[in-house]
């Protein structure tokens, strides 16, 4: 309390204004969502827009409950989630390792640069038929598609961060007689930590894209399968439900990474 | 203790690049005695910094020889301590951890060496800042931390590469006195590379003036000040002014020669 007494009146005014603005933003955010859902529900209830083509929030909730009871919800979510997580982990891990090797060897980096650029600009979905032939029409193919989409971006982002470390800091380490591993662990890695977390965030989104895209191509189960199947039989309730579940899962994964970031920043302080 | 610490004989350096080769240094010969403070001045691009890189062992000469205590320079040895224009403190480390950086690289982060580093901090007024991050310190303070980081490794020879040039004038004069005092009381030998002629005069026992590229030794001046005078006091003497005029003219002539 003593500490608070130190501030002037204008500082309190400033704080109040700041808080008011923050609350206003949150209220507006929630209102938009509520308004959108209400409008959607009302318009479809009175058939101003077709509930067949647009489904409706209440129908989506019904479908979710129904699918949860039958176990389908968990079944399909689990398949897609595990494909995404496996793809995410493998691609991030190998991507990091490759980035390290390319940072370590100037020669390899220069040799592989054009290949990386081509692989990066290639739309990975074009490799779909090849992947199916190689890996069969199952989870393996989906995970591979996911890895393919995530790994190139991971390599390029992390390598870029590794090589952008301040040259003067490296000169200092060298003047102290540091070897390359010391330079990596004492300078490059701590310097790149923020970029690595940013890459993780990007990878969350990309690995979902990879998994869903893979399921579009080959799957017999999973949320991507539900989307495709629902679209084919014109079951818009199913399509919307799968979309909502996807949104929820992807946000949870994103917030997990964001939490990881916060913990790491604290660790750094 | 007037033995020779560094001996440089017939030093030549040629830079190679794809488009051309550049002769950077030519026939450099000088010696540095133990606990001597020497400065190297000269026009821009005359290879001042290159000499420091060669002495530290970061670069190899094209021909000629450098001996520090009769050994060829190697950055893995603890003989040289390099201090840069920028403090190069790691922003994610506290001041304390920054001071240990060199010790960690050398694998000497034992309690005893850390204790020595901390005693330096205490002695030179950095004790209250140990838990802070570099961004919370002023430029002058940060450069002091950089000096302590260098001294923590107990180097015989300090290589100072324009360590004050990124600072404002006021801080620069203060830090000059401070660094001078630290180097004297820790009984170190130092080579200072600088653009600032007064800085060279006020801090050193001897000044080497280099010619324009390729850098050759054009003149050597003994300053001959009393040991106990601070750089700030030295700056104000008539001797310093006279010496300044001479060196200024020497460097100016070099520039004119270059234009013609």
Short characterization:
The complex is a heterodimer of chains A (269) and B (260). Chain A has 269 residues and is mainly α.
SSE arrangement:
The complex is a heterodimer of chains A (269) and B (260).
Chain A: H1 2-5, H2 9-45, H3 51-54, H4 57-70, H5 72-104, H6 106-121, H7 128-135, H8 139-163, H9 167-175, H10 180-218, H11 223-232, H12 236-268
Helix pairs in contact in A: 4-12, 5-6, 5-8, 5-10, 5-11, 7-8, 8-10, 10-11, 10-12, 11-12
Chain B: E1 4-16, E2 21-33, E3 37-41, H1 48-56, E4 63-68, E5 80-83, H2 95-99, H3 101-105, H4 111-123, H5 139-151, E6 157-161, H6 169-185, E7 189-193, H7 197-203, E8 206-210, E9 217-222, H8 231-235, H9 238-259
Parallel strand pairs in B: 3-7, 3-8, 5-6, 6-7
Antiparallel strand pairs in B: 1-2, 1-4, 8-9
Helix pairs in contact in B: 5-6, 7-9
Describe, in plain words, how this protein is organized in 3D:
The complex is a heterodimer of chains A (269) and B (260). With 269 residues, chain A is an all-alpha fold. Helices cover 86% and strands 0% of the residues of chain A. The two termini of chain A are 25 Å apart. With 260 residues, chain B is α/β, with parallel strands linked by helices. Chain B folds into two domains: 4-79 and 157-259, 3-Layer(aba) Sandwich (Rossmann fold), CATH 3.40.50.300; 88-154, no CATH class. Chain B contains nine helices and nine strands. In chain B, β8 (206-210) and β9 (217-222) form a beta hairpin. Chain B is globular, with a radius of gyration of 18 Å. The termini of chain B are far apart. The model of chain B has no long low-confidence stretch (mean pLDDT 87). The chains are: A mainly alpha (269), B alpha/beta (260). Chains A and B meet through α9 and α10 of A and α3 of B.
């Amino acid at each position: 309390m003593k500490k608070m007494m130190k501030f002037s009146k204008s500082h309190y005014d400033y704080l109040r204004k700041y808080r008011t603005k923050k609350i206003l933003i949150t209220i507006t955010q929630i209102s938009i969502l509520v308004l959108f859902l209400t409008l959607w529900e009302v318009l479809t209830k009175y058939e101003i827009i077709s509930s067949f083509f647009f489904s409706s929030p209440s129908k989506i909730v019904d479908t979710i409950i129904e699918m949860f009871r039958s176990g389908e919800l968990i079944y399909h979510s689990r398949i897609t989630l595990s494909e995404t997580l496996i793809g995410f982990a493998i691609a991030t891990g190998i991507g990091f390792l490759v980035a390290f090797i390319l940072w370590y060897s100037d020669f390899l980096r220069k040799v592989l640069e054009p290949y990386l650029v081509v692989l990066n600009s290639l739309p990975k979905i074009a490799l779909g038929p090849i992947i199916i032939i190689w890996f069969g029409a199952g989870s393996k193919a989906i995970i591979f598609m996911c890895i393919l989409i995530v790994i190139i971006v991971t390599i390029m982002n992390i390598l870029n961060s590794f090589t952008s470390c301040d040259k003067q800091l490296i000169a200092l380490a060298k003047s102290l007689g540091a070897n390359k591993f010391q330079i990596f662990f004492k300078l490059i890695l701590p310097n790149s930590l923020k970029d690595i977390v940013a890459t993780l965030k990007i990878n969350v989104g990309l690995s979902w894209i990879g998994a869903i895209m893979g399921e579009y191509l080959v799957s017999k189960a999973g949320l991507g399968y539900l989307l495709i199947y629902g679209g084919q039989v014109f079951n818009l309730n199913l399509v919307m439900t799968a979309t909502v579940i996807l949104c929820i899962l992807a946000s949870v994964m994103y917030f997990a990474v964001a939490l990881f970031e916060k913990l790491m920043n604290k660790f750094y302080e | 203790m007037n033995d020779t610490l560094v001996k440089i004989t017939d030093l030549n350096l040629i830079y190679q690049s794809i488009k051309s080769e550049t002769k950077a240094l030519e026939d450099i010969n000088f010696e540095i005695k133990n606990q001597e403070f020497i400065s190297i001045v000269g026009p821009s691009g005359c290879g001042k910094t290159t000499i420091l890189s060669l002495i530290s062992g970061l670069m190899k000469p094209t021909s000629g020889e450098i001996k520090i205590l009769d050994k060829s320079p190697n950055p893995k040895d603890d003989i040289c301590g390099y201090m840069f224009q920028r403090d190069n403190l790691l922003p994610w480390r506290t001041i304390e951890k920054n001071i240990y950086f060199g010790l960690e690289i050398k694998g000497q982060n034992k309690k005893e060496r850390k204790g020595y580093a901390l005693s330096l901090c205490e002695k030179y007024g950095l004790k209250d800042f140990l838990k802070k991050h570099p961004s919370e310190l002023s430029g002058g303070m940060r450069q002091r931390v950089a000096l302590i980081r260098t001294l923590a490794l107990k180097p015989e020879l300090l290589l100072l590469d324009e360590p004050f040039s990124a600072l404002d004038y006021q801080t620069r004069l203060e830090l000059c006195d401070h660094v001078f005092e630290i180097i004297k009381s820790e009984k170190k030998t130092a080579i200072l590379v600088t653009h600032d002629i007064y800085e060279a005069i006020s801090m050193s026992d001897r000044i080497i003036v280099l010619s324009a590229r390729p850098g050759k030794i054009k003149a050597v001046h003994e300053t001959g000040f009393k040991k106990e005078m601070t750089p700030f006091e030295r700056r104000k003497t008539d001797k310093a002014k006279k010496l300044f005029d001479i060196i200024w003219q020497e460097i100016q002539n070099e520039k004119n020669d270059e234009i013609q």
